[in-house]
Amino acid sequence: MPETPQKTRVAVVAFDGISPFHLSVPCMVFGDAMGADYPFEVVVCTADPLPLKTTAGFSLSDLAPLGAMKKAHAIVVPSWRDVNERPPARLLKALREAYARGAQIVGLCFGAHVLAEAGLLDGRRATTHWVYAEKMAERFPAVDIDPDVLYVEDRNVLTSAGTAAGIDACLHIVRRRLGSEVANRLARRLVVPPHRQGGQAQFIEQPLPSSAGGTRLAQLIDSVRRRLDEAHSLDSLASETRMSRRSFTRHFKALTGTTVQSWLLAERLTLSQRLLEQTDQSVERIAEMAGFGSVVSLRHHFRHRLGVNPTSWRRNFAREPSRTQRSSSTS
Predict the structure, then answer these.
(1) Looking at the predicted structure, is the pLDDT value of residue 254 above 90?
(2) Do 168 and 224 fall within a single domain?
(3) Among 240, 251, 285, 326, which one has the highest count of C-beta atoms within 10 angstroms of its own C-beta?
(4) pTM score, two decimals?
(5) Which domain range does residue 249 map to?
(6) Per mean pLDDT, which range of 1-5, 70-74, 164-168 is the poorest?
(7) Per the structure, how many domains does the chain have?
(8) Are residues 242 and 276 in the same domain?
(9) Where do runs of H (alpha helix) occur along the chain?
């Protein structure tokens, strides 16, 4: 009989005063959302005495002790009750030890504060909820705080922006470990976007009002996704919506939270991932279909954003070995 693959053990740190929503995010994404064969195993642990009182008024009991972190491949701190309170010393020590042995450490929302207190963000890029970002940057000057992004991964340490951005960060982990097809399927089941473009800056100011310009822009975005193989520029897209360059830039940033070039790159990478996983097209042909222009450009952006080259991505996440790979391996 074939061996059962080892599941990735995820330890989620609960605490007295936790928000049920923050706790539910990693439990749902890494829990049973994809069924019995989902390769994650979740354990909720705590450094606080039981039972824990939640912000909704009910209590949590029968949780694992902090020692459960010792066997975890990834540890998620889903938030923190008070950024003016230093977390328990034994929690900080357990996080440092887990990182030292190679576990991935994740701080969602105010959970980034806990990671900073543990010293795990020193010399790294990180993010947190925008309402705390400025204060966190002042309190931890050794941390490079980026208040605009939804999540940041820097050398096996991942932090996210506020609240729902934790879902984006957890889906990012699924995408990196299991591929974009699995992450997209999970996102559909959770009824959330597979990969939101832009960052939390788009939520700080008032959202773009519904307008004819906004409708045209939304239609344009859908259209460009269907023709990523074509060359697009700020000027050409502004022309298609019959907006001035300045007006188009402002509306596009308000709607997506990012620039035209950043959005195009992310869309082209997403398409490339899907083609590598689901088709037998050559890497060269995929570079053309996704609009990269050359395989050199595709490889550069793939490695910069995803940490691997396109061939490695296909090897790890293709639904089954492609005909191209089979023929080359037998030649």
Answers:
(1) no
(2) no
(3) 251
(4) 0.71
(5) 205-257
(6) 1-5
(7) 3
(8) no
(9) 20-29, 89-100, 111-117, 130-139, 165-178, 180-190, 201-204, 212-226, 234-240, 245-256, 260-278, 283-289, 295-306, 310-317, 323-330
